[in-house]
Design brief:
binds zinc ion; 242 residues; alpha/beta; 7-stranded mixed sheet; globular
């Protein structure tokens, strides 16, 4: 099996494809997070325009603007697209406030699994604290591969019990920015050591100056904290086959 591809679109945004199936995760394709004073300006142009995507599903792990993009969500999920939004309750509420029709949204809360033709998604908690109490991470099973997108979550030593970990992971997608409750490079390397994925890809850095994150630090920490486990840095827009 496999023939599964993974593309990074910057920030925490990824596209997973297999055959004709296309699943997006946490796409931020606008500059909607920028404040009036210029803070949270995006540092890289979006690698695609919303209209260039033809997704079957878009997963949003939580409602924050760099994961549920107010500037593009209505273009991504509209009557002109086939795309369905998959997200937890608070994110659904916010998406509807931006103008997304409720019948285009599939709810996925912590502990729930959705089975589709060709893939399944299991939602686990991500500990984003009071900033987003129902935020999720997702285990995506597709083409015989298990991809774990952690979402925005702090590091905690009881993490395996916290998420109810029970399956081997082929690809771990982990934030490394170290701010707003997220793991830094050292925490991410500890996650890697705990979860022992076959491949780890860091994300959630260099989208905004305020976010922090240094992939070079992550590589160094992963080599010392999780020796023997593979990691890989992707270029924005790069697509790899899993
Ligand atoms: Zn967040």
């Amino acid at each position: 099996m496999s023939n599964v591809t993974l593309k990074w679109l910057g920030g925490a945004g990824f596209i997973i494809e297999k055959g004709g199936l296309c699943i997006g995760i946490d796409l931020y394709l606008s500059n909607a997070c920028m404040n009036e004073d210029g803070a949270f300006k995006r540092l890289m142009p979006p690698p695609v325009l919303p209209g260039d995507l033809d997704m079957d599903y878009l997963i949003a792990s939580h409602e924050h603007g760099d994961h549920l993009d107010p500037g593009s969500i209505c273009d991504l999920i509209s009557k002109d697209t086939k795309t369905r939004l998959i997200c937890p309750t608070v994110t659904k509420r916010d998406a509807m406030s931006f103008g997304v029709d409720s019948d285009r949204i599939i709810l996925l809360n912590r502990g729930e699994t959705l089975d589709f033709d060709g893939f399944s998604i299991r939602a686990v908690p991500s500990d984003h604290g009071d900033a987003s109490p129902d935020a999720i991470g997702v285990f995506i099973n597709i083409g015989g591969k298990t991809i774990y997108f952690m979402g925005d979550t702090c590091f905690r030593t009881d993490f395996m019990e916290y998420i109810g970990w029970k399956e081997d992971i082929d690809v771990l997608l982990v934030a490394i920015n170290g701010k707003f409750g997220n793991p830094d490079s050292r925490d991410a390397a500890h996650f890697m050591q705990m979860l022992k994925p076959k491949l780890t890809i860091p994300c959630h850095f260099w989208l905004f100056a305020e976010h922090g994150g240094n992939p070079g630090d992550f590589i160094e920490y992963s080599e010392s904290i999780a020796p023997g486990l593979a990691s890989m840095l992707l270029c924005i827009g790069e697509k790899i086959e899993l």
